[in-house]
Amino acid sequence: MSLDTSRTGPHPGRLTAPDARQRLEHAHHTREAQLQALEASGQSADDHLMSAQAEAIGRVLKEIEEAFARIENGTYGACLNCSKAVPVERLEILPYTRYCVACQRRAAA
User: What is the total count of domains within the chain?
Assistant: First the structure.
């Protein structure tokens, strides 16, 4: 697993639980701000583009909440498909990801 929950300090190539939480909190705040900006734009809720954007942001917010739950239950950093460790570089870029790159590619194909 790519999450380091030890109390002895971080290990190279591992993401600490506080770092993961911080990245997730940042992603959550960013998405919330995007959602608020959409709502404040004055466009009609019937606008298909606005609606699609709001739905996409909502899905990401749900994924972020699920990632917080994975931290709590000790499964954060493991691919939900193959159970292999998700590379720390991927978690740094996309902290709420559920899959390693190979499984994500297979799912998208």
Answer: 1
